[in-house]
Amino acid sequence: MSITVLITYTGKEQRAQEFMQEMLASGLVEKIRAQAGNERYEYFLPVDHVHSVLLIDRWTDQHALDSHHRSPMMKEIATLRKKYKLSMQVETFQHE
Predict the structure, then answer these.
(1) Which tens digits make up the pLDDT trace of 10-37?
(2) How far apart are CA 64 and CA 44, in angstroms?
(3) Nearest-angstrom CA–CA distance, 72 and 57
(4) pTM, 2 dp
(5) CATH number for the domain formed by residue range(s) 2-95
(6) Using CB atoms within 10 A as the burial measure, which of 38, 65, 81, 82 is most buried?
(7) Where are the beta strands (DSSP E) in the chain?
């Protein structure tokens, strides 16, 4: 059973987009995509919310997601989120 996590990052001005660009440029996105159980890790720019970025993050199962959450990359993501002063809205969906 796959798990999809939708995370909306929101900040002032273009801060969410700057966060996304740094995630991509730093190689963190590629490292996450290479983790066992990752099926999708993609950012999108909502047309009607210029201060936000949407992340679609899908994992094969809860174990894979839990392993990701325990990985050192989570600390790096949290550091970047604080750097850009972003808030998060998280939605989780389980599907077959």
Answers:
(1) 999 999 999 999 999 999 999 999 999 9
(2) 23
(3) 17
(4) 0.93
(5) 3.30.70.100
(6) 65
(7) 2-10, 38-44, 52-59, 87-95
